[in-house]
Amino acid sequence: MFRDQSKSAGRSEASAETPYLKLLARGASADAYEQPVLLARADGMAADRIAALEDAKVLALRVRAEMEGRRRREAELSALFETAHDLAGLRDLDAVLQAIVQRARSLLSTDVAYLSLNDPARGDTYMRVTEGSVAARFQQLRLGMGEGLGGLVAQTARPYVTDDYFRDDRFRHTLTIDAGVRDEGLVAILGVPLALGPHVIGVLFAADRRARVFERQEIALLGSFAALAAAAIDAANLLTETRQTLADLERANEIIGDRSGVIERASDVHDRLAELVLRGGGVHDVSAAVSQVLDGTVRFADAGAAPGDAVEVSRAEGHAVRHGDDWVAAVAAGGELLGALVLDGQPGLDPVDQRTLERAAMVTSLLLLARRSAAEAEQRVRGELLDDLLDARDRDPRLLRERAARFDADLDSVHVVLAARLDSPVADADQEAAARRRLWSAASHLAATRLGLAAARDGGTVLLLPLGPGDTATELARRTARDLGTAVHEAVTVGASAPVRDLAVRPETVAEAYAEGQRCLDALRLLGRPGDGAAAEDFGFLGLLLAGSRDIPGFVERTIGQVVTYDEKRGTDLLRTLDAYFACGMSPARTKDELHVHVNTVAQRLERVGRLLGAEWQSPARALEIQLALRLHRLSSSAPPGQH
Predict the structure, then answer these.
(1) Distances (CA, A) of 5 to 11, 52, 415
(2) Helix, strand or coil for residue 342?
(3) CA-to-CA separations, 612 to 568, 584, 605, in angstroms, rounded
(4) By the 8 A CB rule, do 129 and 94 touch?
(5) How far is residue 569's CA from residue 594's CA, in Å, rounded to a whole number?
């Protein structure tokens, strides 16, 4: 009986798979795989029969998905091979590019595909080939570097994708580009760079007229077509070299075909890491690429967060080492430990994968060193330009503007010079030097993000930052003190100059403004306000002594300007009343005799002054400033024309 039941169960399982085998055989849609279960339930079949059908359905759908994936990969590989064949067989560049764009559009199933090339002479990028486009204005677009999604790809040499172009603010929108995209009706756009070595020569796009999220494999596929398009362009310009390259690729393909899966995986790692280096990828890009190859999670850990013992062993031996269920590869350069790559939860790592992790650690160290060197070089060059402005070495406005433009700085805009200094005590000279380096590094980063300049000077740091619309020197000084203090975790005091203009034409004003900023910095320290920021305008009449320009009209305007304006508009005598009031020892009774008016008139005028100048206008400090402003206003008003 047991054997009969087993045979019956076997027939039940076999019969449960039969309808799904038929569905697989005829390539039915995914929806059709629900029918056998629904029919079984409708016929009132036994629960074990329905469960068997459910299991068979899951297995069949998995097989179907695998088959669909293989068909898709076969189609992609076939298109890539056909395109590569076109490169060898066609001599017409436009025909090759048109074929690439057509295949990209077909495989990604997009409404439109197009390709743009950079124009070095004009400094922009223009449409070269389109497929599926219907708008003439779109087909004739030219994009400046950094403009639109395509301009951003051309400028940064990195793929960019947006599922809704007009709601995406990661790139700069322009009226011309937006009008062309709107004419074409595009919504979702994917762009990948066309690169020859480190140089971007154009962009390959795939776009839809509806919202769409492009998958990672679609981005990678378009990137493969972009690489072939770049090769086609290179072939048209350098035909002889391209033939040799294609021959080398053929030989490389033959060698790769003879190797085992392990060698293919190692080659894949090498290609991915080389591509990351060429396109300027970062540490996390390396971790992500190696994670895919090793089928695990690879993460970068800073030197302080990495497993200490394992990192030291890896650093000493020069190999990845096992740490529990993880593997650790030290990321080091010379005698400096930069961090580690950690492969989580992979205790059984074969030698090839171990070397892959070690190679990734080496590439990571190179990327970190290259990024640090580039940042330090840019900081030094920014500092050299600011040093030249402070010392007025270079007085050629054209050269100064050109040097500043390399850092996106505009010397013709309004700037403020800020003197910054650390206020925390240090234990010894080495710690003081390290603290100053941190301050200089933080100031350089701040200047780079705000399109300004920074340099180390006089035991501190000097910054030249543009003044935004509606901003003041005081607000900029306080914001800079706060930002630098947060960056270096210490109190940073900042003194600011008054706004300065025309720095390319009058570079000597930078040194004058720096001296004014230093005086404000010293005043803050003397007043016991470490970690604060201020400009001369914050110190009342003392600001006249701190400001290099001795801005007397500005002081008068800030102190009694509202009273002056009130008298001028209404013909009142508030200023004369103030003069008499202070001359009479702030006595309303004596003031009314001096002015020959009723005491109530004096009281009414002083009440109006209080509303204009604020309730504290008669406090000793404010009264002193007001009296000084009245004296300066009187002297300025009596001076001959042209000497105010």
Answers:
(1) 10, 15, 91
(2) strand
(3) 14, 21, 11
(4) yes
(5) 24
Reference 328, options 351, 350, 354; nearest CA is: 354
Rounded to whole angstroms, the Cα distance separating 266 from 551 reads 70
Asked if 158 contacts 116 with a C-beta cutoff of 8 angstroms, the reply is no
| Pair of tokens at residue 376 | 């330090």
Nearest to 274 by CA among 372, 216, 195: 195
Three-state DSSP string of 486-540: HHHCCCEEEEECCCECCCCCCCHHHHHHHHHHHHHHHHHHHCCCCCCEEEHHHHC
Question: What percent of the chain is helix, strand and coil (3-state, nearest 5)?
Answer: 60, 15, 25
Helices marked H in 327-426 — which ranges?
Answer: 351-391, 397-405
The pLDDT assigned to 133 comes to 92
Q: What pLDDT is recorded for position 252?
A: 56
**Segment holding 573, helix H or strand E:** none
Q: Any idea which residue has 């206008």 for tokens?
A: 617
Phi, psi of 639 (to 5 degrees): -70, 150
- Residue 73 in this model has a pLDDT that exceeds 70: no
Tokens of 182: 């709107």
Q: Per-residue pLDDT averaged across 475-488, rounded?
A: 87
Q: How far is CA 124 from the centre of its chain?
A: 21
User: Quick one: pLDDT band at residue 278, thresholds 50, 70, 90?
Assistant: low
Do 243 and 98 meet the contact criterion of CB atoms below 8 Å apart? no
Q: Cβ–Cβ contacts within 10 Å for residue 230, how many?
A: 21
Q: What is the CA radius of gyration of the chain?
A: 37
Sorted by sequence, the CB contacts under 8 Å of residue 220 that are 6+ apart come out as: none
Please tell me the pTM assigned to this model. 0.37
Does residue 314 have a pLDDT over 60? yes
Say how many CA atoms lie within 13 Å of 84 toward its Cβ. Answer: 14
- Reported residue count of the chain is 644
Find the angle CA(206)-CA(212)-CA(215) to the nearest 5 degrees: 75
Q: Please, where are the H alpha helices in 261-307?
A: 261-278, 283-294
